Amino acid sequence: MSVPFALLGLLEREPSYGYELKQEYDSHLGRGRPVQFGQVYQTLGRLARDGKVSVGVAEPGAGPNRKRYSITSLGVGEFERWLATPVAPEPHLQTELFMKVVLAILVGRSAQKYLDLQRSAHLKRIRELTAGKRSASLIDRLLADHALFRVEADLRWIDLTEARLDTLAQELHR
Amino acid sequence: MTDHSPTPPAGPAAHLLVAHDVYKSFGPTTALCGASFAIDAGEVVAIMGPSGSGKSTLLHCLAGILRPDRGQTWFAGQRTDELRDGARTELRRRAFGFVFQFGQLVPELSAEENVALPLLLNGSKPAAALQAAREWLQRLGLEGMGQRRSGELSGGQAQRVALGRGLITKPRVLFADEPTGSLDSLTGEHVMQLLTDSARAEGTAVVLVTHEPRVAGYADREVMVRDGRVSSTDLELATP
Prior knowledge:
The complex is a heterodimer of chains A (174) and B (240). Chain A has 174 residues and is mainly alpha-helical. Chain A contains 8 helices and 3 strands. Chain A is 68% helix and 5% strand. In chain A, α1 (3-13) crosses α2 (18-30) and α5 (94-106) packs antiparallel against α6 (111-133). In chain B, 33% of the residues lie in helices and 24% in strands. Chain B has helices at residues 55-62, 85-95, 111-121, 126-139, 155-167, 185-202, 213-216; strands spanning 17-26, 29-39, 44-48, 70-75, 78-79, 96-99, 173-177, 205-209, 221-226, 229-232. In chain B, the strands form 2 sheets. In chain B, strands 6-7-8-3-9-10 form a 6-stranded mixed sheet, sandwiched between helices. In chain B, α5 (155-167) packs parallel to α6 (185-202). The chains are: A mainly alpha (174), B alpha/beta (240). At the A-B interface, α6 and α7 of A face α7 of B.
């Protein structure tokens, strides 16, 4: 799941409280599928346990959850690796492609570089599927065609998004 | 990003065909600004990129159809940007083949004569040229259609005739600019399969300009042209 990486990315921008993280996630990444408070705190707890975020001292007078979280260098490394790893070109991965682009822009990293990596992974898959069709039976060719059209649809989205990166950045930083 | 750009003077001789730091403008419009590209013998490379990115201009510079404003082009260890027009025409006839998207067949000639045309222009005897053309038509699944004129051929058939004409001189490089652009998916696939199979069998390198991923899927690798520059997409992928 992408929620831990989303939280790491949002924390890379600036230290934050659980409540703020939920707000940020919902407005930029959730798109009608808000993340639950419970999931945010549970994830933050796991990230803290693994040394990827550090937890500040609870503020006096505040509720039990009024803790400020910061990303650690281990957490930054984890986020960087995630962003630099293209998603395996399979159907139904638009959510993760979308998350990576938006998070890259939000934290001021190169969304272009990520899209280049993703395009490269997708084109490699298209070459593999095309090569596989050469000696395949008609049934296997039909299956490969289905996969090809799916991967191609992602590639179109990648091209279109690339053409709109500047506008998207303006909108996200408004 | 790994860049496939060669670095003269050591680079160009190592590749079959090279563009190094090429600039080309048309009036106020800059088509290429520092584009570099290299292809080796027998390789099939797709040049991709959005409309207006400069990919066709790059093909035309590599093929010696256009002369760069700045930068160098090389073929088989020789500078080609410095050749006189006549020498470049000669080079295109002897070493290069072409397949474009539209309107490449001479309508007054039969399919057979269209395929034979490059050999005839190169001074081959008509009987031998037509015999070679018939062999190519057979190889491309067009036996019995040699006497048809281009108006009597389907889009896919016409494109196969154009392919035969592009390959009949056994060129070192075949330049294909959106070769399936006017065909439906299935016909386009057939043409691409024939194109890459025939080129590989002949040891001909292919410079394939396309904006379609499914066409680029027939290449060994691809490069992206963006704002008149080339970047390889053959990136080293990060491991999870």
